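Practice set, problem 2.
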Amino acid sequence: MSNKRVYASIITIGDELLIGQTIDTNSAWMAQELNKLGIWVKRRVAVGDVWDEIWNALDQESKQSQVILITGGLGPTADDITKPLLNEYFGGKLVVDQAALQNVKDIFEKYIKRTMLDVNLKQAEVPDVCTVIQNKRGTAPGMWFEKDGKVFISMPGVPNEMKGMMTDFVLPRLPKMFSLPAVVHRTLLTAGIGESYIADRIKDFEAALPGYIKLAYLPNFGMVRLRLTATGENESEITAEIDRLFVDLQSQLEDVMVINEDKNLEEAIGLMLAKHGKTLATAESCTGGYISHLITSVPGSSKYFKGGVVSYDNTVKENVLGVDADTLDNHGAVSEETVFEMATAAKELIKTDYALAVSGIMGPGGGTEEKPVGTVWVAVAAKSGTVTKRFQTRYDRHRNIEVTAINALNLLRQTILNDLKTIS
């Protein structure tokens, strides 16, 4: 067992990664999980399906990291060369792993229901010098190699399969191989205030942090996540200190804090609604159902979200939500009057405690001098009344939709909070 800091390198394999055809989400997820264990990711390297480049990457990364994670190149086709390369790299011989073979057969029999080809059977072959990591979510097994105190772990590039192996096998095993420090995180989410303003507000707090506790700013679309991280040998001691500091941080940001957990805005709103037994509906125009998607991406959202109307066209606003034709003619779809009627109608139509409505111009076309691209009106209908607010975004269409959803959800959160304060 080593007492030194443990470093990791992540090698992702595939031409599709280099040309941008596939976005590498594996590295980010693996880095987060390794960090939780107290393993520092030193390098992330992407290489194509080229034998020499993969071989050289293994050589280079094993010189500076004790843990080398490899994803990709384990499929059944000719360009999947990771397994034969690793077999040669570690001086092994390919043999059939019976458990992996049975797994492949079971998948074809139960799910694919097609004749299995020889290339599929070959996926059960593994180097005899590795520990096999069974794949509960696919056909290609993973491989764990050890050499000169270093660990090399090869997994499929399919994110779901990789995550299964990491969670079930790799992450529990690494602490048994290395002596790792305790790492403790505390996270809070803020909204409605920029990163620079937060930094200015808490500059004295940040300057007084002890060396073993770091503060990270993680901004994203009108929100800033603040994460305190403590690292040390005595977990109970660093936990007590980071908890004390976290209480102080919350007190300084109480007016802009959404939640004092590592959760996103839609999760925070869901917790509020579920705790108080309240329900929600949506009426979306410019976001096209994106807000409903965010809300329903949270497990258990059926407890508080009843449904929504995507009233993209004015005829739907009129015929389904009952927005007055005169309102649309006189004020337009993107107006305070229209979202007011959308929200109040959705609340009554779907029979909920709250209804959230949005209408805007996401671009790139459709803007005018009076209502330029990025103009958005949001309304939240509640028992206490309906509140409205105008926002102006400044990005491309995709980002405008995302920012609009965050602004709308935050207005909903503020409305719920105000209602709760009134009740209490």
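Problem 2, part (b): a different protein.
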Amino acid sequence: MKCPFCGYEESRVVDSRPADDGERIRRRRECLGCGKRFTTYEVIETVPVIVIKKDKSREVFDRNKLINGLLRACANRPISIAAIEKMVDDIEAKLQNSLDREVSSTLIGEYAMEALKEVDEVAYVRFASVYRQFKDINSFLEELNQLMKNKN
């Protein structure tokens, strides 16, 4: 690690501690050249997940888009922001742990529906109605019947 004061390339770690809820490590270092101390942060390097959309375009996964979609589905429902963030964290972890660096938006939607189904059935139906783009009332009723059948 290059010293920000003198540019010397060697330093020793004086202190290490977790930062940002364990997402980063804060390290206090001492330059072996000039003796001054400085702080560095170590973070896990992640490879971005690319989302293949229905129109075959590609974009980097954006957790905020997923949060916004879930917030709309959960509007006026007894679901906390913390619960929504946990769902998104779990979905993002599944995507990061997958060996695939490119995933379809369909898969992300399925993960979101699975998570919503466990938390709130109304939010699940709301999300599914937008996500699956029901063509008519019969396809919507089929989804509701599936939900009722799986519940019993």
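Answer key, part (b): Strands lie at 11-19, 24-31, 37-43, 50-52, 58-60, 102-104. Residues 11-43 form one domain.
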